[in-house]
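Sample log: TENP protein.
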Amino acid sequence: LSILLSLLVPAHATRSPDCGGILTPSGLSYFAEVSKPHAETILRQDLMASTVPDLLHVSPKSGSRNQVTSVTVAELTLTLIPDAGLRLSIDVELGITSAPSTTKVMRLSILSDLHVEMNPEGNLEMVTSACKTSMEETQSTEEMESKSSSSDVEKDINVDKICLEVSKLLLLPNERLMSLTAQFPVTPSCEVQYLPLAAPMFSEQGITISLQTTFQVVGMAIPLPVSPVPFSMPEPATSSPSHLTLAFSEHFYSSLFFALEMAGAFNMTIPSPLTTATMAQKITQMGSLFQEDLPVTLQAVFRSSPRVVLEEGKAALKLFLTVHVGAGSPAFQNFLSVHVDTTAGLLLSVADTRMMISAAGIEEIELSLAASDVGPVPAALLEELFLPTIRAEVPAQMNVVLSEGIYLPHISSFTYIDVDVVIHKDYVLIPCNLKLQARPG
């Protein structure tokens, strides 16, 4: 298999997206809300370790030592800047104590512009492109100082130190962004990976990211069939209440089934209620092939790649199988081969960060004789002998393979809730909300 795959790899299609997502303004607000505790921790670690002269370009008054004794993030917001990136705004309340027992509360405001770029490793990375700060006194246990001294303080902030803290704030988000391109198992020998094709697009509707799915079988990337239609993210609804809308093209689903087929996951051995003796009652030439009565087994293989078809409100899976009918174990003696073309309905749902896919039963099925060592077999007899078994077993065995689901593009520590799956012609939309999972301990 690996030799075959290595021969195929140069034929890899050009890079084009087959799925993606749009993070809406409400999703951005949720990120801002859950980022407050992290921002407070980072700012507290360094600012509380500092004396005020570190923070401000001022010389300490003789004999007194100003110390930052409390750091509280009062507000943190993320705002979209169309075609550019994001604006991060943080309002921090600093408690500053000087000997003997004087405490001031200062309001530190940080404004930073952020943009997302692709690094050489192909991961998305958030970087600061501009940062400015201001500070004012809000209350004091001393008498209120004149406005002029507070504006002097504002001019004298050590911007470099504060803006360095903003860069530190991005370490955790960037770590999580990097998890987007992790490899996720589909089966023991097959893995999926979602690769960003470019930096995200920023618009009033949200942040749009286009992804290309790649599959590896036994550690080697496989060339996926070329999409007949280039996929672009559907225009988002202007006021989506969901945090995020994921989109998957029809080609994405066909690629998944192609990869599973390449991995051999769908090669099926199907037990049959028939024996060689019961079949000999219908096909007389069976008797001369098998002197003893043996159980009949079906072995199903794909003669052409499976294909997923998406229509409004429904998904279907088209399968093109050859079923080899035989007997004997361990030496399987194949005496009949049947082409089976079938369509099964597909059910799609989401559990946590995985898409669950199941074949919901055979909708159409057509059997035709491919090869026979026992003479001609009429189509009606093929159906009588094999149709009930194929109809029941093929979806059941595929569902065992599909039962683990396939990981959706996601970043670590977040899961999907309030999920809807909407099937359109040629693509699937999954509007959902994000939920930050509590870390154990």
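Observation: The mean pLDDT is 85.
Observation: The radius of gyration is 31 Å.
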